[in-house]
Amino acid sequence: MKKGTLHVRILEGRNVKETDLIGQADPFVEFWIDGQEKQKTETRKNTDTPVWLHETTIPLNGNENNLYIRLLDKDLLRSDDLGETRVDLAQLYQHYFLDSWVSVRSPKSKESTGEVHLVLEYFPKVDHHERLANRAF
Predict the structure, then answer these.
(1) What tens digit of pLDDT does each residue of 27-41 get?
(2) Where along the chain do its domains lie?
(3) Does CATH place domain 4-133 in 2.40.50.140?
(4) Using CB atoms within 10 A as the burial measure, which of 21, 45, 66, 71 is most buried?
């Protein structure tokens, strides 16, 4: 795998399970790449179809294999872990683009607790010497 940049868009969710006794979930997403700091979207209040429209760019050093996604329900004292999944980046490194709904599963029951719509783009770093070697004169 080559070094480069990963552009992450976490657009929306659907079918988010509620864990609160009253009302719907207040969902947000935590996400991270192997060995890197966790990032998160904003919380959307009282909905099972959140729209986050969150975008960020993550530098890649070439050793990353997975993007981890965790769906949480924000509560006053602590957030409830609704579920998680991982996206294997191998296919993204080959095709450079992925637009997909990923199913998030409960860590306890393995049942689906919702889906997250992701758009991922990989931009490989072009080596200056490689560019000169491939240049036609």
Answers:
(1) 999 999 988 999 999
(2) 4-133
(3) no
(4) 71
